[in-house]
Amino acid sequence: MNYLGQLTTRALLGTSRGAGELPSHFGLAELAGGVPTSPEAEILRAAGAYCLYERAGRLALRKEIAAIAWPDDTRPQCSKRASAILDRVLTINDAEMLIEWLKACVRAGRRPPASILPALLDAATRRIESRAILRSPTATAVGPTGLWLCRLNPDWSALVAEDASVDVQQVWQTGNKPERVAALSRLRMSNPAAARELLNSTFATEPAADRAAFLDSLAVGLSSSDEAFLETALSDRSKEVRTGASKLLSRLAGSAFVSRMIARVTPLLTFAPAEPGKFLRKGKPAQLSIELPAACDESMKRDGIEAKPNVGARYGERQYWLLQMLSLIAPMHWSKAFAATPMQLLVAIPDDYTDLIQMAWSNATFNTCDPDWAEAFVRLGKHSRMNEHLIKLLPDGRRLEVIYDLISADGATSESILEFVASGPLDVRSTRLLIKRIAERARGLKANYNHELAALLPRLALAAPPEVLSEFESAWPIELFESAKKAYEQFFITLTLRQNIQKEFA
Amino acid sequence: MEKSWTRERVLQVAPDPASAKAGEGLANARKWALIGCDESAVWGECQGSGAKPYQVQVDLSTSSFKCSCPSRKFPCKHGIGLMLIYAAGEVADGQQPAWVKQWLDSRAEREAKKAEKAVDVSPEKQAERAEAQDDRRAKRLETVTQGMDDLRVWLEDLVRTGLAAAPSRGFRFFEERAKRLIDVQAPGAARLVREMGSAASSGDGWQTRMLESAGLIYLLAEATARLDDLPDDLRQDVLVTLGIPTPKEAIDAAPVVHDIWQVIGREMDVEANLKTQRTYLFGVTTQRPALLLDFAYGNAGLDVAVPVGTLFPADIAFYPGRSLRAVVRSSTQDVAPLTLMQGLSSIPVILDLHANLLGERPWLDWLAVPLTNVRPTFDDGHWWIVDNEGNALPLSANGRSNWMALAISVGHAVSVGVKTDGKTARLLSIVDDGVFTDLVAPKDVAA
User: Fold this and answer.
1) What is the pLDDT of residues A218-255, one digit of tens each?
2) Residue A84 to residue B351, Cβ atoms within 8 A
3) Which residues of B touch A19 (CB under 8 A)?
4) Does ipTM exceed 0.85?
């Protein structure tokens, strides 16, 4: 035991339990130098002095720096102003604005300053709800240096899988679930067959929740070569996996699964096109007739159709079977089979089935990402929970066209305006129209508009093209927005910040 | 002159996180009716809740704020908002409005008067004042000495009954002792006792740490008892360590050291209602470390006239007793950015300097210096800085700062501002490729 250890033992026990001689050590015990002394004093004095000796006598440690491949980012750093803006965006803690900054930076071929990388990586990995959407833009923006840091810091490991240089096989064997999902999805993009094989190689041994998540990543690059694998997954032990497999199969036009579904539903739906009026005879509107399925047989069950609706469901058993089956058939099939446009079919649904069939078809539209049907739903304007998702299926140009039409026809409810604004970036033309509409409503409704406006402004601030900022200012006198003043101010702050981002990377 | 106001610096001046946040809210040029700056000042008019807009102005030469709003916080959110806009480079040059000119003139006048007054006091009056001060000081010293003697006995009792029982007595046991030392006006000793208390809950090896801590305090107590026998410098150091303020005359009389000072870092602690700010300097020519201490109570803002990350030409006076602590006596405004650190070149040199300083100031805890040509390294979960010869100093894991240093340096040699007790180190700042980065986290504005 070293000298300090001996002193400590004595001090811990206490000198009242027998003092004993203090060991001599470089004259420490004799430090008292004539001052009246006691065993306690000697221990304390010696400990203090020893501590000083030690502090003053420290030698440097030795450390070899391992020769590693240091990351190298050849992109020029973004401007000081751009990095100051990033600072602010990080303080505001708004995922969408952060994405805007990151994308602008990447587009301009710049990189964020190295000193900000840790804060950026924290922001992209800390909050679970924003993680998924932030991951890919962050990984691209932080570049090789950032990804290298992610491999060193477990807190940031979720981003590692975004690294294109990473070995997918290795991540698949050793990574955690999010890393593996990301790696699989990336491989799927470049080589769908290899990704499916990789998944197939371990599928049986994965836990149920993971199987379902992995299966979802097959959505990218889905083709008929996946059919066999998905058919097997239809008999999986886990319901979640079976449902996932049936959804994917339903997107495979011409698959055996789809043919089975169509064969089951075809006898149940008949469509009579509209007949124009002639002389005294009145015309007849188009009519869709619906029959409910009689039974849910074993083959239906194997294809993922549930026999019993959940407790408290809005539909009876037979309605529920139809709902499920119809949701799994691409809606395009019906427009072809009945030689009718989606809109013609939608308005031909008999009243007592409107709810059921619309829900089934909007599920199917969403599942197969069918833009024609999506547009029909949005133009129909009946507010359903699906609309906010369906509008996002439209390619940008078409989406903006629909939005412009609907706003200018004044056929948009306040809910649908909210959906338009949340559906993605707006163009100058529809934004100008919106500016006018909002000002009109604000003038008309005054304080009653407050609530609606407070919900609308934050989304509009993220969707509007920043270059129309000044038009907002002149079109909206502040007194119109007195009751939503806070939201109004925040709106301008956000939009100004976005304008600055654009300017900085222009 | 390079603009020395950065976003970080502005946020540092904020008296509290709430003001910083409110200031951020105002950091938007659209909220300002009139806004402008020139070489000596920044000004703006901000519409508040009143009819008349608030007039806000900042004197750049002294970094002082003034606002016509009724807020008791200082600087107020308007001042912070204005300076945030200024720091972002979004304030255009302009002509000083009359109210700004008036304020600057009156300040200059007041300064002149103050200087006149200082000269004006008659010798008799000066002597009288000095005598009264000496009296007060002697009384205080007596109380402190008594308090330290009690502390000595208390430590002996602890060792008599055995330190093993200390942790079970809990935090309060040490806290009460520390409070008594505050009562006898020895705040420095109180801090040491608190540290000793925290050793009790410091995990493996606490026993040795506590005994070391107790031993150093004991030496301080014995030194206090023999204050008159000590050599001048050591006596001064004991007084400073106890926390007894150095008389103003002694500081005034201290010789002035002129240098261009590298401002390598700044830290701030908040304890109860007291903010303590440490600014670390290192002379380019003298290669001497200096510490500027600033205090602020409650809502008051801290002095930030010395900006971090700059070369700051100034006359500074060191406190007596070979102290590291210093005050700025006079400075020019020729502040340049610190793009190249000129400091120590290897880790053994730092350790030598630290050892030498310990010889003069046994109770010295930290030393902050610039260290050139080192590599921040992360290996197997541990952080190091490694110099060119392979000498290493462990870094304490410290929030983001180590990761920032690693991201900036990625394997090549950099200069760092580093604070060390000889055993471990903390990074304060880094200079790479001519760019200075402050690694001390600013106050959490979002809080």
Assistant:
1) 988 899 999 999 999 998 888 889 989 999 999 998 89
2) no
3) none
4) no
